[in-house]
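=== Structural record ===
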Amino acid sequence: MTQPPTILPQSASSTLVAALLESARPDPNRLAIEFSDQALSYAQFVSLVQTCRGRLQSWGIRPGDRVAALCLGHPLQLAALFAVAELGAIWVPLNFRLATPEWRQVLDDCQPRCLLADPAWWEAAQALAVDSGLPIQPLEVLGKSGPTVSPQPVRGPAARDAGIDTPVLLVYTSGTTGRPKGAVHTQGNLLANARAAIAAQDLAPSDRVLTLLPLFHVGGLCIQTLPALLAGACVVLHPRFDPQQALVDLERRRITLTLMVPAVMKAVVEHPHFRDAQFTHLRALWAGSSVLPDELVQIWLHRGIPVCNVYGATETGPFSIALGPQHAASHLGSCGWPALGVEARLQSLPGTQVDATVGEVCLRGPAIVRRYWPERPALDDQGWFHTGDLARKDQDLSWRIVGRAKDMIISGGENIYPAEIENILARHPAVAECAAVGLPDPRWGERVVAVVVLRPGLEPSDDDLLDPVRSALARYKHPRQLLRLNSLPKTALGKVQKERLVASITEPAGTKAEPSADSPRSP
């Protein structure tokens, strides 16, 4: 039986640091973070937060200032988040997978007071500093006490000013369309999200959580890592994802929970050491993705490990809808039910032909941001966040994402959800990646085009690839063309950029996938 988690304070005066201290109080010597060959107890981590706060004060960081960071995963990033929270400042982790012009966009938008960088990204940070005149500091200096400013007690004057409604984290959207927007997370947002994540995952001080995803996004930071620290668990932190090291630590470090996206999951199961690895302590694998390939889920289920799922967005915490371990095998393809404190509803999209069972996912709750930087509203007049994702609710009220509203294909008046086609294509052993998109068609409005990236050395026929789709789906959903590409355009978080993909197929050159003759509804 797992021991009960350290529940976060519920009062309006709660802050991130207060919650951390509450988590550390029962056993300050319990391990908080393992990183490479380092191990930090909760007492040592709290001390590191104090040191970071003192160093930031010595640099002149004040309430409302933005502190940007361009770094691989490191305990100092987590300590810095708590330190800036205590000061009433705002942490801005930069996506290290972006290009230099994209970093400049973010920095121009939020105007940080300083930029932290580790050795891996120091040269890139220097180039950004030359362009903008922005002061840069080595990340490692943050953990060293300043010569003139001693760290103040963690519960100092700033803590009274930095309350639950104080902005603390600025995370920029993936930028699948247009210019990225900075979602402004308050301390209250992060605490509410952590409560939902702790409850859904049954996080407890006995857990050991392996963090493989980057801390620059709410997925890597807020689904498990921050909730684990606020539940008194131990976080095993990797600087960046490496499938071999992931397998080593899953086996040797007694990991009980971890989080992966499909691309990471795929790299792990395809590693030659996966077959022999023993996951003795792993009680659940969580996935941060609206759509999970059944094949990947089944591989883990066959090893006795439930694959759970959490749905959300940069703006929603992101712990919004969750499928727990008790339903992992029975609800393949589902995202589960709304998490603690989250209201969810389906809304028909104006101007689109959405059937009665499918609508846009709208979310409301204390973990959802109210604005984008600096003062652009993120919610409608009733406080709902419109995700742009399409979903349906099953009879048991569980939620199933069917695609993006803007990606929905309407052919001959029929709605076609790309995820249905992609899930089937992805099961083919020769398919490494795939996407289904709609291209303009003079007769039917749009026609379905399947795009595949094949595994090296495998060249199945078009019929071999498409016959499973033809067998499983109505004829009007069948792809009319099949294209083979070397790669798919993606965001930094691995999401296929459908608009870029469609733009690159200006003159599709592929093999016609003619519809079967027995479909009365075919365009």
Notes: DSSP finds 14 helices and 27 strands in the chain. Residues 42-58 form the longest helix (17 residues). The first strand starts at residue 31 and ends at 35. The mean pLDDT is 88.
